[in-house]
Amino acid sequence: MKDKNEFLQVKDLVVEYTSEGKIVHAVNKVSFSLERGRTIGLVGETGAGKTSIAKAILRILPEPGGKIVGGEVFLDGEDILKIKEKGMRKLRGRKISMIFQDPMTALNPVKRVVDQIAEVVRTHNSKMSAVEATAEAIKMLEKVGIAENRVREYPHQFSGGMKQRVVIAMALACNPDLLLADEPTTALDVTIQAQVLEMINELKKDFNTAMIMITHDLGVVAEVCDDVAVVYAGEVIEYGTKEDVFDHPAHPYTKGLFGAIPDLNSHVKRLSPIEGLPPDPSDLPEGCNFSPRCPYATDECRRGEINAVEAAPGHTCRCCNIKAQEVQK
Amino acid sequence: MGRYILKRILWMIPILLTVAILVFTLMYFVPGDTAQIVLGSSATPEQLEQYREIHGLNAPYIVRLGSYLGSILHGDFGMSYIYSTSVTADLLARLPRTFIIALGTVIIGVIVGVPFGIWAAIKQDTIADRLILVTSLIGASMPSFWLGLMLVILFALKLHVLPAFGIGGPQYYILPILANGVAGFASNARLARSSMLEVVRSDYVTTARAKGVSERKVILEHALPNALIPIITSAGSCFGMMIGGTMVIESVFSIPGIGMYMTSAISNRDYNAVQGSVIFIAILFSLCMLIVDLLYAFVDPRIKSQYEGKKRRKKHE
User: Fold this and answer.
1) Is B207–A102 a contact, with Cβ atoms under 8 angstroms apart?
2) How far, in Å, CA of A284 to CA of A102, rounded?
3) Cα dihedral A167→A173→A177→A178 (10° resolution)
4) Residue B48 lies in a domain
């Protein structure tokens, strides 16, 4: 898509799950790229394949079942899908790390919080003693606002917000170059959401980390992201800078998403959702995946593969009749 | 923690009391005349009456129950009607043999069964997994007495390497433990496999992988401690059951343990011995369960904080 010097470049990534003999097409030819210090938002509904993209980059898809079928992921020019498992292990936690969606289940219930963080530190700094690693972990926990007198407790003694902080501290413990944040605020209530987002933003600035922010919350995107990729049924259907996508949404699905946000200033009796449901990923429709729900769909949409077209320079959209939409308006 | 242990030990008192009353009552209403059984069919009515008078068998139910419970509290299970020996002393003398068999069985089950179960879980749906599953199915379906006899035929009669029955040196315990342990191995392997499979799919194991921790550490340090709880439950209750349940294997190998003692007491209608054995086994079983519960706390901090009660939790808030 862009030049090869990009820090992270995902090209035609395909992920499939096998379940009960059926093949679930979770991620279909997803491509995007990311520079250091920037944040891309992967936006989409539950089940659109956002988490699978992140897990595929880290190569921690659930086994057996999940499989990367095709594509390339370049990190600093190296295709990390081709690295051996042992080499990959050195990247995980140090160069790439992930903040998991559900802090309630992401921490090991039988290990002390501080030990869970010291473990990452020590795994990637083999010369460090256990005491030093623990000191480092305590420092990291203090950075996310957890006092030293609590660090030796177990996850069940922590509240949801505190657990999320621990998960974030764990992800940032080795100053990763790439952070995969999988809905880091979904499990939290609104007041803590804001704190956590602010914290992530600050830490990101401190370490010049590139970040993939997975979310279905457009407000979160507006707050932290530079670029946006809208994911629908395992495909990036619209991709551009935040300003492009927010101010000039091109794809009918993106338009629908923005249309569904209620306006605080006007009186509406009913919300305006996108009619219908996302397609079954084990049985995707022919042609455009969004065509069954699309108000502008034509016969052309239901035939063959839909290519991404440029709506504006650097702003692509996977829709075959952007022009037609303009006319209908 | 100390409070919890004390509470649990105090709880054992009503449980054991109930067991004692139940067993005594059942034995009381079992048809059959103790005096007749002890003195045999040739005894005269006078002799029988005299025997009943001496042993307090003519007293009403409630009086006999009271005096029985009273003596139990002093650790005295009465005299065996058949051998005229102290039941308590008999049981204590036999306990070590049964204990060795039970412990050996559980150890085989845990030390061999659990690692195989974990291995099967890691290699899910491979040949190794299937092989372990089939082996454990066969192991679980073989009755221990039959397996015991087969082992005797092979190792004692054909190969002449191990004794066939009786007690003596440690070699006498090998075959009984083996015969008994196979079923334990099978159930532990299956249990370890299923609980490991559940844990391996959980989020925190994915977290551990995402940290770059080696697969061996992920399994041993992150998954295993969480998979241990059901394994401890099963191994613990298995040990408790074994104490009372080695009857079959003790009979096959003629090992004078608690199981044998109880079977012969039942067939001889040796009431005191039967009652004593049942209550003794109940005590051992409760102790086993107490140890299991304490092990939980050791493995899982969530359970530990429950035991420690509200007081400490409040301090944290």
Assistant:
1) no
2) 28
3) -10
4) yes
CB atoms within 10 A of CB B61: 11
B204 shares contact with chain A (CB less than 8 Å)? yes
Q: Does residue B306 form part of some domain?
A: yes
- B125 shares its domain with B63: no
Of the partner residues B203, B211, B301, the one whose CB lies closest to the CB of residue A123: B211
- How is chain A split into domains, by residue range? 8-95+176-328, 99-175
The answer to whether B208 contacts chain A (CB < 8 Å) is: yes
B317 part of contact set with chain A, CB < 8 Å: no
C-alpha B195/C-alpha B189 separation (Å) is 10
Residues B41 and B98 placed together within one structural domain of the fold = no
Give the CATH number, domain containing residue B204.
1.10.3720.10
Q: What is the largest CA-CA distance in chain B?
A: 86
Q: What is the mean pLDDT of chain B?
A: 86
A contacts of B225 (beta carbons < 8 Å) = 110-111
Q: In B, which residues are within 8 Å of A60 by CB distance?
A: 206, 209-210
Q: Identify whether residues B115 and B7 lie together within a single domain.
A: no
Has residue B259 been placed in a domain?
yes
Same domain for B132 and B194, yes or no, is: yes
Question: Is residue B278, in this structure, part of any structural domain at all?
Answer: yes
B216 and B131 in a single domain? The answer is: yes
Q: What is the pLDDT of residues A243-259, one digit of tens each?
A: 888 888 888 888 888 88
H or E element at residue A105:
helix A103-106
Query: What chain A residue is nearest to B202 in terms of C-alpha separation?
Result: A105
For the entire predicted model, the pTM comes to 0.79
Beta-carbon separation of A108 and B226 below 8 A = yes
Residues B191 and B252 in one domain: yes
Q: Do B198 and B68 fall into the same domain?
A: no
Enclosing domain of residue B46? 2-73
Tokens of A189: 């209530």
Looking at the complex, does the CB of residue B201 fall below 8 Å from at least one CB of chain A? Answer: yes
Q: Which residues of A touch B214 (CB under 8 A)?
A: 89
Query: Which among B27, B19, B58, B87 has a CA at the least distance from the CA of B269?
Result: B27
Cis peptide before A176 (omega within 30 of 0): no
- Most confidently modeled of A1-5, A143-147, A230-234? A230-234
Q: Is B115 in the A-facing interface, judged by CB distances under 8 Å?
A: no
Mean pLDDT to the nearest integer, B67-81? 86
- Range A8-95+176-328 classified under CATH 3.40.50.720: no
* CB-CB neighbors (< 8 A) of A102 in chain B: 203
- Cβ of residue B202 closer than 8 Å to a chain A Cβ: yes
Contact at CB, A110 and B124, closer than 8 angstroms? no
CA distances from B268 to B40, B86, B136, B179, B251 (A): 12, 16, 38, 28, 15
Please count the residue pairs, one from chain A and one from chain B, whose beta carbons lie less than 8 angstroms apart: 79
Would you place residue A326 in the very low, low, confident or very high pLDDT band (cuts 50, 70, 90)?
low
Total tally of structural domains belonging to chain B: 2
